[in-house]
C-alpha cells in the first residue's frame, strides 16, 4: 500500500527555497532515510510532510490520517508522570498499547516518575514511545536517535523494524547508521535549490514569515 | 478533547501551573484600593463595580500567555497540530481550561472582594451574573491574542496591546450590569449585550485563533 508520494516537491525555509524538484514514494513496510549536510532542509521537508507548513511547489499525496510526527522537541510535560504523558497522547490519537510502548522503550521502571526528572535520553525514549501509541502507519522522524545511548539506539531500531513488519513505514532524517535492513537512503544534496529564489515574497503572509 | 482538558487542568494545578495566580492578583488589588481611595462607603461604593471588573480583566490577562506558549516551547503544539483533534477544538478546549483555572475562581471569590470594596449587597448577584456571562469572552479573546503571538520572543507585551482593546466592550457592559444592579435599575440591556459579545467570541474565536496558530507554526 502506498503511504506517501511526493512529486516535484520544493520546500522553503524563511522565504528561501532550500530543496527543489524532489520526488519519492514510500510504501507500507519501507523505511527511507534522508541524508544530507546540516541546513539542507531535512527538518523543513519533514514538517511539510507532517502538514505543519505548505510546500512551495509540487505535491504531497498522503494516505488519510497516516502521519505520526516526532520533532526535535518531544512535547513532554515535566509536571506529569511518564505514564500520564503517554496516556494523554494515547487518548488524543485514540490509540492503545501504552503499556506495551513503555515496555518496548524500557521505561516501565520509570512510569511513575515525573517526566521533568528524566535524563535527556530517557525523555527521548518517552518521545519515541509516543509514536507507538498513535497507531498511525507513517512515522516521520526528525533525528530520532539524538541523545540515545548505543543500547537504546538498538532498541529503537528494533521498534522501527517491528513497525515496518506490521505494515507501517518510516521516513527519518538521521546522521547515523541505524542498521535497519532494507532501509533505503535518499541523499538530498542533488536537490539543493539553485539559489534562484524569488527576490520578493510571493504573498503578504510570507513577507512576515 | 476531554483528554486535553484534563491534561491542561492537571498541569495548571500541579507545581509550576498558573492556578491561583489570578485570584491572588485580584485579592491584592481589592485589598489595596481601600487604602488608596479611603475606606468610607461614599467614596468606594460608586467605583467598586468598575474596579472589580478591571481587576478581573487584569487577573485574566496575567495568565493568558501560558495558554499556548508553554506548549509551543516543549513542542507539544506541533504534535497537537498533527493529531486527529481539530485545531479549532484544541483552541476552544484550551480557552475553556484557562477559564476554569482563572475565570471560575475569580467568580467564586468576587463576592468576598466586593465586601472589601463596599459593594452594596443588592449588587452581589449582578456582579456574579455579569462575571459568569462575561469572563468566558475574556478567556476566548485572550486565546486569540495568545495564538497570534505564540513563538514571538517577549510576545507578552504585544499580546496585551492586542487583547486589551478587544476587552473594552466586555468591560463596559460588565461593569454597567453591576453598576445598574447596585443602583437598583434594570440591568437586562447591558447583560444582553454582554452575553452577545461572549457568544460571538465563543463562535468565531476558535476559527480565528487556529488560523493564527497555523501561520505561526510554519
UniProtKB/TrEMBL annotation, chain A:
InterPro entries on file: AAA+_ATPase (IPR003593), ABC_transporter-like_ATP-bd (IPR003439), ABC_transporter-like_CS (IPR017871), ABC_transptr_haem_export_CcmA (IPR005895), P-loop_NTPase (IPR027417)
Ranges for domain ABC transporter: 4-206
Keywords assigned: ATP-binding, Cytochrome c-type biogenesis, Membrane, Nucleotide-binding, Translocase, Transport
Molecular-function annotations in GO: ATP binding; ATP hydrolysis activity; transmembrane transporter activity
BP-aspect Gene Ontology terms: cytochrome complex assembly
NCBIfam families (UniProt xref): ccmA
Listed name of the protein: Heme exporter protein A
Organism: Paracoccus tibetensis
From TrEMBL, chain B:
Transmembrane segments: 12-37, 43-64, 96-117, 123-150, 157-175, 187-213
Record's bilayer topology term: Multi-pass membrane protein
Location, primary (coarse class): membrane
Gene Ontology cellular component terms for the protein in this record: plasma membrane
Molecular function as annotated in GO: heme transmembrane transporter activity
Function recorded in the entry: Required for the export of heme to the periplasm for the biogenesis of c-type cytochromes.
Family, similarity comment: Belongs to the CcmB/CycW/HelB family.
Record Pfam families: CcmB
Keywords: Cell inner membrane, Cell membrane, Cytochrome c-type biogenesis, Membrane, Transmembrane, Transmembrane helix, Transport
Keyword Protease annotated: no
Cellular localization per UniProt: Cell inner membrane
Entries under InterPro entries matching the protein: Cyt_c_biogenesis_CcmB (IPR003544), Cyt_c_CcmB_bac (IPR026031)
Protein name: Heme exporter protein B
Entry's Gene Ontology BP terms: cytochrome c biosynthetic process; cytochrome complex assembly
Source organism (scientific name): Paracoccus tibetensis
The keyword Cytoplasm is assigned to this record: no
Amino acid at each position: 500500500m502506498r503511504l506517501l508520494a511526493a512529486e516535484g516537491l520544493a520546500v522553503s525555509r524563511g522565504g528561501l527555497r532550500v530543496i527543489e524538484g524532489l520526488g519519492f514514494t514510500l510504501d507500507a513496510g519501507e523505511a527511507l532515510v534522508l541524508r544530507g549536510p546540516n541546513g539542507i532542509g531535512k527538518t523543513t521537508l519533514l514538517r511539510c510532510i507532517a502538514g505543519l507548513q505548505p510546500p512551495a511547489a509540487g505535491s504531497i499525496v498522503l494516505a488519510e490520517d497516516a502521519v505520526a510526527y516526532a520533532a526535535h522537541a518531544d512535547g513532554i510535560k515535566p509536571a506529569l508522570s511518564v505514564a500520564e504523558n503517554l496516556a494523554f497522547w494515547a487518548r488524543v490519537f485514540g490509540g492503545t498499547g501504552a503499556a506495551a510502548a513503555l515496555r518496548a522503550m524500557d521505561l516501565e521502571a520509570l512510569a511513575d516518575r515525573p517526566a521533568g526528572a528524566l535524563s535527556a535520553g530517557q525523555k527521548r525514549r518517552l518521545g519515541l514511545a509516543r509514536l507507538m501509541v498513535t497507531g498511525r502507519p507513517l512515522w516521520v522522524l526528525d533525528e530520532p536517535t539524538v541523545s540515545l545511548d548505543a543500547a537504546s539506539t538498538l532498541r529503537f531500531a528494533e521498534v522501527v523494524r517491528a513497525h515496518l513488519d506490521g505494515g507501517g513505514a518510516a521516513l527519518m532524517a538521521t546522521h547515523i547508521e541505524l542498521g535497519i535492513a532494507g532501509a533505503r537512503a535518499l541523499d538530498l544534496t542533488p536537490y539543493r535549490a539553485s539559489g534562484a529564489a524569488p527576490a520578493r515574497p510571493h504573498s503578504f503572509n510570507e513577507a512576515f514569515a | 478533547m476531554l483528554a486535553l482538558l484534563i491534561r491542561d487542568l492537571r498541569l495548571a494545578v500541579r507545581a509550576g501551573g498558573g492556578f491561583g495566580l489570578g485570584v491572588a492578583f485580584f485579592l491584592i488589588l481589592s485589598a489595596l484600593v481601600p487604602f488608596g481611595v479611603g475606606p468610607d462607603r461614599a467614596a468606594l461604593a460608586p467605583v467598586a463595580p468598575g474596579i472589580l471588573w478591571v481587576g478581573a480583566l487584569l487577573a485574566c490577562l496575567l495568565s493568558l500567555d501560558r495558554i499556548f506558549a508553554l506548549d509551543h516551547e516543549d513542542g507539544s503544539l506541533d504534535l497537537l497540530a498533527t493529531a486527529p483533534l481539530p485545531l479549532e477544538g484544541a483552541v476552544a478546549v484550551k480557552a475553556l481550561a484557562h477559564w476554569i483555572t482563572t475565570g471560575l475562581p475569580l467568580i467564586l471569590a468576587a463576592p468576598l472582594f466586593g465586601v472589601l470594596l463596599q459593594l452594596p449587597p443588592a449588587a452581589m448577584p449582578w456582579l456574579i451574573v455579569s462575571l459568569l456571562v462575561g469572563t468566558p469572552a475574556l478567556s476566548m479573546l485572550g486565546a486569540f491574542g495568545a495564538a497570534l503571538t505564540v513563538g514571538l520572543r517577549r510576545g507578552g507585551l504585544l499580546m496585551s496591546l492586542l487583547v486589551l482593546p478587544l476587552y473594552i466592550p466586555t468591560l463596559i457592559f460588565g461593569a454597567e450590569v453591576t453598576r445598574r444592579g447596585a443602583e437598583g435599575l434594570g440591568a437586562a440591556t447591558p447583560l444582553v449585550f454582554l452575553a452577545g459579545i461572549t457568544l460571538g467570541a465563543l463562535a468565531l474565536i476558535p476559527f480565528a485563533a487556529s488560523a493564527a496558530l497555523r501561520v505561526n507554526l510554519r
